[in-house]
């Protein structure tokens, strides 16, 4: 098993640039640190430093080890900070990762019940690419991931996907574009300027099939990973864009866009991904129960 004290000595030497400086910072004899790093190198089976003149330089193995050490000690600092916060506060820490393909308004609707319950919850919410969030749920950096797809089995990540419901997909556009392309929908979309989500979104796959089934070939003007940016281009009249039908009122108010029609048969689905098969975190339970109640209603 890796000796973390030895790893810490290596990390301090790599940051300080020499054994002597690290020894002074740690108030230890240089020989002690040198011996501990030597033992670590034996355990890892690789040299971590090489001499360059009077100084030390990291080897390729040292560079790799340093990158892991940076992450390990960063996680350690986060652990200490979180435990101190929990000891000093009655708030329940709730760390959520939201996939960047999930519309902000949908994320809010799904997460709002966590803050509306009786428990005092402190929400820490961050947005990122889905593959990175899957890695973070595996390493317990987040309690929950909000995504537009379940956790793929092929990743080998231990986690469970809990359905939060679905919503129909619709097409929106400025008043001028809507007046032009609404009559004869959906055939009117053939050749129409279209803004679509990027290939990291499950919506793009559904749209491709839907267009093919209806023998429609729109003119793709742009692809966007960020749904808010896509709507901003739509607001400027650049093209027609798809969005969850449940947001129709909000889209009309914020972006001045009118619903042209629904893409019948396409559903956008959302999932809460956790390491628990049986949910126990009070904030996660509140989200799951609210989603079930809305779907049943």
UniProtKB/TrEMBL annotation:
Keywords: Activator, DNA-binding, Transcription, Transcription regulation. Pfam families: HTH_1, LysR_substrate. GO terms for biological process: regulation of DNA-templated transcription initiation. Gene3D superfamilies: 3.40.190.290, Winged helix-like DNA-binding domain superfamily/Winged helix DNA-binding domain (1.10.10.10). The keyword Membrane does not apply. InterPro entries: LysR_HTH_N (IPR000847), LysR_subst-bd (IPR005119), WH-like_DNA-bd_sf (IPR036388), WH_DNA-bd_sf (IPR036390). It comes from the Bacteria. Residues 2-59 form the HTH lysR-type domain. One of its GO terms (molecular function) is DNA-binding transcription factor activity. The keyword Lipoprotein does not apply. Signal peptide: none annotated. Belongs to the LysR transcriptional regulatory family. This is Transcriptional activator NhaR. It comes from Phreatobacter cathodiphilus.
């Amino acid at each position: 098993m890796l000796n973390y004290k030895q790893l810490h000595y290596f990390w301090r030497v790599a940051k300080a640039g020499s054994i002597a400086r690290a020894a002074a910072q740690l108030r230890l004899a240089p020989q002690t640190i040198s011996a501990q790093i030597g033992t670590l190198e034996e355990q890892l089976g690789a040299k971590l430093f090489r001499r360059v003149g009077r100084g030390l330089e990291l080897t390729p193995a040292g560079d790799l080890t340093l990158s892991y050490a940076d992450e390990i000690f960063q996680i350690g600092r986060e652990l200490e900070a979180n435990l101190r916060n929990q000891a000093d506060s009655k708030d329940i820490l709730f760390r959520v990762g939201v996939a960047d393909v999930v519309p902000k308004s949908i994320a809010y609707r799904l997460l709002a019940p966590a803050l509306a319950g009786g428990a005092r919850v402190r929400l820490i919410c961050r947005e990122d690419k889905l593959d990175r969030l899957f890695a973070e749920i595996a390493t317990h950096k987040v309690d929950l991931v909000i995504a537009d797809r379940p956790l793929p089995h092929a990743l080998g990540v231990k986690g469970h996907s809990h359905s939060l419901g679905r919503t129909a997909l619709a097409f929106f556009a400025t008043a001028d574009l809507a007046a032009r392309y609404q009559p004869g929908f959906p055939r009117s979309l053939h050749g129409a300027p279209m803004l679509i989500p990027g290939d990291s979104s499950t919506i793009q796959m559904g749209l491709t099939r839907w267009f093919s089934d209806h023998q429609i070939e729109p003119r793709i003007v742009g692809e966007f990973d960020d749904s808010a940016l896509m709507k901003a281009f739509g607001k400027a009249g650049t093209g027609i864009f798809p969005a969850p039908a449940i947001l129709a009122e909000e889209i009309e108010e914020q972006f001045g866009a009118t619903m042209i029609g629904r893409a019948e048969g396409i559903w956008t689905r959302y999932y809460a991904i956790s390491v628990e098969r049986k949910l126990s975190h009070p904030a996660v339970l509140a989200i799951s129960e609210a989603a079930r109640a809305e779907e049943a209603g």
